[in-house]
């Protein structure tokens, strides 16, 4: 770390002063000039290996241009088969957040190994004179091997930043690598080295800290844990995996915290803040770097040759390979998902083309043959990829299931040692913000109520990138071996002779001595997690009401807040006697109990150690006013902090309109209106329990789904009638079309005689994208509630301008149709997913 600081041309203090002198809210000039000589120089730790270079050269001499191009393409397992790999000689496959063997969310180690073996056999098939080149198989193991059922789930990175413990990070990396290799996979897309500067960004929890020094320190530690220490026999051995430093560059610095947005910062800030983790990562021998979706001053990173080639590969001496992000090359001007020589020529060596790989292969092959991609650039990219495969020992390793850790996966995945490590990480990451009158630690011999809707919910405490991309649609049964926070407290209280009740709604049988209320954010990942401001659940105060009710009953209240980032929760902090930032602790909820509870003899079992890695906001407006709790804040039990009385004015005015939830409990949510459009073109309001068009073509009535009148039934009497949800102002859903985001409708089909039904999105006068739902709906059993998901990219393909959506939901059906709706929202999981029209 000190060596890295010495390499900086501008001292951190001087940088801070320079940045502070900018006018508030001002953005530096949109200058994209890069001066590589001013960037910190890293040193690749692996000496030149003549034997390795000879092997690479000999193999490349035998490869056809078709085989070389195949090495540059990475396809997702949901859109590629072993036969495709055999035919196209692809260099890599990945399993995206929602991609699993056999499509099973709770895929087991055995299923992962079977999948890896099938693809390995295809890659090694030499029939037809092909070269046998083993595959790299990539996955987002970002807080443990989070895509495999029963794996150890470590706290998310924003929590780990609070531990200030690089050795812990190194051990977590090693444990994660072992569990990944035990399933036959050899590459993780981690660690994230973003330095988030705006907590509205939905991926803030993937960053260790807002402080570049913390990120730089953790970068080498996590990479050494995942890959082993360069220069030792452990480096890239059978118990380690390839790591990816991501996302290069400034994904945590985009304007307004917008995912895949534009970092409008100076080159100085880009270099000294957002690039801080990359020199130590390269010093540690990181084998891959992932390019960022985002832009720097308007220029997409996937097409930025000055940064990818001149800085990263040149000045920083990076000798691994650069991999793209999910169809990120398609966002480069002049490119599409299936055609982007500019990205390869800029320095991306392997393009992640999950569902577009076939067209991309064909175009890239043609461009390699025509010279649009120079032969030297093609060979450089292929050589970089092959070196990584040779370093990992893939050519000698054999089938994934036969490798050392894979043969004993049941002993490795979710092992007692790994779970103990994760529990230690939970203990070290907890940050105590308030502890009035020393209410903590709690006496486990007392009567303790554990309340809140996250008290017994492992999914909520684990967050996004957990079994599914967004971490949603899961129950405790999906986490064998894990423990919820409530269960962890109950276990220790009962063992000490105390009494415990767990009740999400806080209703108790006998008045408790103290209440622990566990609440916080719902799981989310990219896109879905972006916020317009820092308010916690605007318009939904059920958590605050629970805290107030228990406090009003004269019960001391301990608030345990689950979140990927600090949020404005002044009111919740005020009403609680103690407030703990527990972040997203993962599978070992017992680690929270280890710190909150005393030993049976009354002594402190474990003190608080966590220090804020992100300043806690004093306002709901990003960047407004001073931080409520500064970076580095965190109480210990011996600290006697003054009683807090925080201001309860958030600074946010006006109605808060969500962009991902449109219909809830049969009613349009705030900021949207429901309307019925008759066959005669005349619209009427639908925001009542009963309504109908003037021409009688469409009727709406209330019905019960899970509660009284929490759904609506629609009956079409004539063709041509529609129902729609109208936004008060257009909004942009274009980013969400790049991925697996769905428009999910919770519905029931009662009658569909003409098999005529469609769903759409509107984008202003004369602009609409419609998708046929007839085949999907007629296949559903009548009278049964289900969730039907339509990929957002389907609406774009059908003609909707996703940059200006003003009707996020439009529905039409034929005469005689009868449908019921309960909820419409963006999501990533559904019972039935519609195929996009081609």
Radius of gyration from CA coordinates: 27 Å
Instruction: Count all strands and give the number.
Output: 32
Which stretches are low in confidence, meaning pLDDT under 50 for 5 or more residues running?
A: 1-29
How is the CATH topology of the largest domain named?
TIM Barrel
CATH superfamily of the largest domain: Glycoside hydrolase, family 3, N-terminal domain
Task: Report the principal-axis shape.
Answer: globular
Biggest pleated sheet: 9 strands, mixed
β-sheet strand percentage = 15-25%
Distance between the termini: 52 Å
Indicate the CATH class of the largest domain: Alpha Beta
Indicate the CATH architecture of the largest domain: Alpha-Beta Barrel
Helix content: 25-40%
Structural class, from helix and strand content? alpha/beta
Query: Would you tell me the overall average pLDDT?
Result: 93
Domain unit count: 3
- SS summary, helix count: 25
SSE topology:
Elements: H1 2-7, H2 12-20, H3 50-62, H4 65-71, E1 73-76, H5 82-88, E2 92-95, H6 109-123, E3 136-139, H7 157-161, H8 166-181, E4 187-188, H9 212-227, E5 244-248, E6 262-263, H10 267-274, H11 278-283, E7 288-291, E8 295-296, E9 299-300, H12 305-315, E10 321-323, H13 341-346, E11 351-352, H14 357-370, H15 375-391, H16 394-397, H17 409-412, H18 416-429, E12 431-435, E13 447-451, H19 458-462, H20 485-496, E14 499-503, E15 514-520, H21 542-552, E16 557-562, H22 570-575, E17 578-581, H23 590-596, E18 661-664, E19 667-668, E20 672-677, E21 683-685, E22 691-692, E23 698-703, E24 711-716, E25 722-727, E26 742-751, E27 757-762, E28 768-772, H24 774-778, E29 785-791, H25 792-797, E30 807-813, E31 818-827, E32 832-833
Parallel strand pairs: 1-2, 1-11, 2-3, 3-4, 5-7, 6-8, 7-10, 13-14, 13-15, 15-16, 16-17, 29-32
Antiparallel strand pairs: 8-9, 12-17, 18-19, 18-31, 20-21, 20-25, 22-23, 23-24, 24-31, 25-30, 26-29, 26-31, 27-28, 27-30
